[in-house]
Amino acid sequence: MSRLFASLFFLIGLHHGIALAQSDVYLCVDENGKKEYRNTGTTKGCKKVDLPGITVVPALTAPAGKKATTPASTPSNFPKVDDSTQRARDSDRRQILTDELKAEETKLANIKKEFNNGEPERQGNEKNYAKYQERTALLKEDIARTEKNIEALKREISNLK
Fold it and tell me: At what angle do helices 3-15 and 129-159 cross, to 10 degrees?
């Protein structure tokens, strides 16, 4: 999962009030040098990434007997972006999300091809049937995760103006 997508997913979770549990993150590098972040490090070439914890600060509440005030409006001297600049930024964002979606769809097609309807071709290093079953289970997890990534990207794209 790319950093961009991880950041977007985190922001989506915050926006919708979803509590996300923190788990281990692994940086996996395949034989072609392609980097991928995963939540499991069971495959060769994966190293655990040491990430700082997340600090959650609860919202302030009004003392008993007092009404909560509405937040102040944006100050008049606050820097604003003109419409054409914002449209360009939105266009760039849409392009980044679209590129990420295409990459995830390609990845899904490749994983499904390798998965071969639950019967992937056995590799030479899988003389032990348990290794074959482990790889098959990992492929199935990768398919589910990639499908969720695609759904989230499509939702994010549909939320753009």
Answer: 60
